[in-house]
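Exercise 7.
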Amino acid sequence: MSDAPERPQWKTLDRDLNRISQLELATAYVSRPLVAPGIALVFIVLAGVGAAVFLGSAPTNFVVVAAAAFGAYMALNIGANDVANNMGPAVGANALTMGGAIVIAALAESAGALLAGGDVVSTISKGIIDPSGVSSAEIFIWAMMAALISSALWVNLATWVGAPVSTTHSVVGGVMGAGIAAAGFGAVNWPTMSKIAASWVISPVLGGVIAAAFLAFIKAKIIYQDDKIAAARRWVPVLVGIMAGAFATYLALKGLKKIVKIDLEIALLIGATVGGLSYVITAPLIKRQSEGMENRNKSLKALFALPLVISATLLSFAHGANDVANAVGPLAAIVHTAQFGDIAAKVTIPTWVMVIGAFGISFGLFLFGPKLIRMVGSQITKLNPMRAYCVSLSAAITVIVASWLGLPVSSTHIAVGAVFGVGFFREWHMERRLKRTSASRPAEKRIAPEERRRRKLVRRSHFMTIVAAWVITVPAAALLSGCVFLVLSAIAL
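Solution. The predicted structure, written as tokens, is:
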């Protein structure tokens, strides 16, 4: 009887505890989306504080600190958007988990930026603005600041929408818009801009055609052979040799600028040597790995998985070496102009600026990268290791061809264009097989046009979104940069 009065008290306590636990769950659910932006904000603040400590009591300290913070913001957006192009196909093909892809990409991008990133970068991003047209160093600083802010905001918006865009083109648009606002239309090198505009079409088309050609080769020589394993033993080492040679040439051209300057002929010779050695090493390994495998496509996927992972890693290293310098170019220009008071066409990138770029890319990839990795890897078209391998191989070869032709191309456009190329080739190939089947068996039921449209292997909604984002990247970043420059100049000048 003595326990009876206590029961209502225990019930009340249980109800209160249940309400508290529900409140904690609701709080955790609401706050979870804020964790990544919070960590990103801490990194941006630390970049600014680190710049202040490193530079000491310089007279233009505040401007450089602000530029370092915006440079960190830009680096975060590169990691969130640009790196997905390298790792997306490997994740979509299930050759890598999302966590494994993020770790490998973060290490490879950082190593590429810090070990092989260019010592010198063009302050006016590929020569699109004439520095002599800018009247003073102070105006130049604010123009570069506007370019940095606008390009970062545009890439951030594109990531939020789910469209992989070119970071380099965003910076080009930002520099052009700020240059026009600061010095007029005459300051723009329009022939160079026309080449960049042409690359909007050339990059994805060339990447798509090369990827489709390799996929057609793999289907004809390996997948549709009666003895798939024997065909794989013959041709997979050849494809690995081509991949190794292509990446050796790519890295010699783009990734070793900090160590030694290599022209295209020497780079091709290096690539041929590395490709031949890779074939000699790979042939017995593939033969040993394929022993006891069943004669079906699942076995082929296993043979292509490791080369795909290696190619994705090399793409990330080359991207870190090549594109990070372009992205931190405006920050390097601001630091140089603030310290020395002159406007230089090319400047040396301080080590601490490259550190901000390298670590920012890693944080951006870790915090925000999975969205675009899934988009590129699985939401445009379905990829397996063979198709994804064609995408990675196409990215390296297209850059080499573009360098030979002297065309400014975007690694983003190439990689995503290669994904589209693989998807559209599969659609064309499926349509051709359906026509052959219909011709040989006319009595069978034909597929209705509505069902045929539903079976398209490339998602048209993503295709239109990405193409639209590519087309408007430069003008949108330019317009945004011009507006930001006018605001900054009204405040500071």
